[in-house]
Write a structure and sequence with these properties.
By secondary structure, the chain is mainly alpha-helical. It is 59% helix and 0% strand.
Length: 140
């Protein structure tokens, strides 16, 4: 909707939620990588295989969710595209965690990168709503 300039307030709220979730994810990844560097004996092949299986399980759960949400799809969005996107994102997480990619999927939604990677400099709570303003002022 945001790319079509529809529901701008809702889209902006989702962008702020996405930004916050991305901050949490980045913190978690940095923390895991720091622990890995400071304690190299903890991250052995067996542990890495276990981590890969955890992420693969999450991907499988996301696949099931996509199937339940969009069993027959809608224009421009279907279960297979969502599954490929989830695998693409999982591969990005594997790389950031210094583990090998597992899916080698490409991004079926390149426009999502524009939305996700966009840095906003304004504060949601300081934004004025302009859609309902008129040229006149109320008089008492």
């Amino acid at each position: 909707f945001g790319r079509q300039n529809r529901l701008p307030g809702t889209c902006e709220q989702v962008q702020y939620i996405l930004r916050d979730e991305s901050i949490h994810m980045n913190f978690g990844i940095e923390l895991i990588n720091a622990i890995r560097e400071e304690n190299p004996g903890v991250w052995d092949n067996e542990f890495e295989k276990e981590m890969i299986e955890f992420i693969k399980t999450a991907v499988s759960l996301e696949h099931n969710y996509a199937q339940e949400c969009l069993p027959s799809g809608v224009l421009g969005l279907n279960t297979n595209l969502l599954k490929e996107y989830v695998q693409y994102i999982a591969d990005r997480r594997f790389e950031r965690l210094r583990m090998p990619k597992q899916y080698n999927s490409s991004n079926p939604f390149p426009w999502m990168s524009e939305v996700i990677d966009l840095k906003k400099e304004k504060n949601f709570f300081e934004t004025r709503v302009t859609e309902y303003q008129t040229g006149g002022a109320l008089e008492w």
